[in-house]
Amino acid sequence: MSHLVIPQFLLVLSTIILGLAIKPPLFHPIFFLFALSFFLYIVSTPHPDVDPDTLYTIGTMGGSFLAAAFDFLIVQPNPQDNLKHTSQDKPASQLSFFHRLRWATTLTFNLRGANWNCAVPGLRYPTYSSRWNFIFSRLRSASIYYIVGDVVGALTRRIPAFQYPPTESLSAHGLGWQAVYVVLFWTSMYSRMERAHAFASALFVAVGVSEPEDWPSYFGRLSEARSLRSFWGRSWHQCMRRSLQPQAKFFAQKILRLPQKSLISRYTQLVTCFFLSGLYHATGDWLVQRNPSTVLANICFFTSLGVIIIFEDFVIYIGKRVGVYKVPTIVSYAWVLWWMTVGSPLTIETMVMANNYKVAPGVSVVEMLLERLH
After folding, report:
1. Is the confidence at residue 359, as pLDDT, over 80?
2. Which end of the chain is more exposed for a tag (fewer CB within 10 A), N or C?
3. CB–CB of 65/108 below 8 Å?
């Protein structure tokens, strides 16, 4: 049944979309439970013949889609009235069933809520002089990130810690080389996602499925990564943020009944968000390896980010109390690099062990050139 995993995942997404489009909202929780059950079936079933990258993506993104569905179908009292695209002139509840299906599909797949009233804050929307100017600029970006991914892929293929199976750990040659390996890893992930986003935006705008303004930059500015909070909250992609925050808020305020806007509530939501992010990444890892230790490693890495950000906030607070309001930028960047160097191997090595570290393009120009040189 492994060959059915993609249709099964599409069934999960279709159930979420249909649930959003159905009236009245009374039926929404039923569709959420169906979608959750279908996804749990995928997770509980071994898929030995499916590409690890496909399985990892289904596991990770499936968790994110279900988290968003929890907000739409459980937490939201009436999403058809409350959630609107900027182009809507009336609520979805007043649309025909066909148009509600289109509305629900757009909402489900717009993970960051771009141009919706539930958009993730701080998105960088594109500036362009014409539709074709946008398309060509995105194709140019896709080409640049193809080259970056190809170069980094050629390097990592020659590093034993990134080979499958790995013959040494990332820390085998000391902290300095570990920092280099970690930078290569995150650069490769960055280029891979940017390449896919740039190409997809050019394609969908070219065929008229979407508009340029529906495609804000996938990442924030790396120059803003002066702390772990700003790195994960602004510089890195925000595809899970919209789906994680409602769950974390629900847990802190509805389950634990913590006071709204209190410090304990804020930090509980912060750690819960990172824990859930770890759980969704771990689900992808479980689909590939079915190894409890690597699942735990993923959860520990992401949860630790929430804890270390609390520590970071505390240090900043103490600094301001003693009159230190700013530190040199290089110190801030060094702090982020140090923590990512120390913490990242927890999740990087699980990806390598799962044979899921495949960031270089399928056709490598760099490898072709290297073969000719030899």
Report:
1. no
2. C
3. yes
Phi/psi for 171 (5° steps) reads -95, 10
Q: What is the pLDDT of residue 363?
A: 78
306-310 LR contacts (CB < 8 Å, sep 24+): 306/267, 306/270, 306/271, 306/272, 306/273, 306/274, 306/275, 307/271, 308/228, 308/339, 308/343, 309/227, 309/228, 309/229, 309/232, 309/270, 310/267, 310/270, 310/271
Residue 116 forms beta bridges with which residues? 85
Does 95 score more than 60 pLDDT? yes
DSSP conformational letter for 120: P
Put simply, whether the predicted model's pTM sits higher than 0.90 gets the answer: yes
End-to-end CA distance of the chain: 44
Query: pLDDT tens digits for 2-16?
Result: 578 999 999 999 999
- Identify the burial level of 98 via C-beta atoms within 10 angstroms of its C-beta, where 0-12 means exposed, 13-18 middle and 19 or more buried: exposed
Question: Running DSSP on this structure, what letter comes out for residue 212?
Answer: G
**Interatomic CA distance for residues 253 and 244, integer angstroms:** 14
User: Which distant-in-sequence residues (6+ apart) come within 8 Å of 201 by Cβ?
Assistant: 134, 138, 210, 212, 215
**How far is it, in rounded angstroms, from Cα 217 to Cα 33?**
33
The pLDDT, as a whole number, for residue 77 is 87
Q: Answer yes or no: is pLDDT of 221 > 90.
A: yes
Instruction: Judge contact between 351 and 180, C-beta under 8 A.
Output: no
Whether residue 357 is predicted with pLDDT greater than 80 in this model: the reply is no
What proportion of the chain, given as a percentage, has pLDDT over 70? 98
Helix count (H) and strand count (E) of the chain? Answer: 14, 0
**Contact status, residue 247 vs residue 272, Cβ threshold 8 Å:** yes
Structure tokens, 188: 């490769």
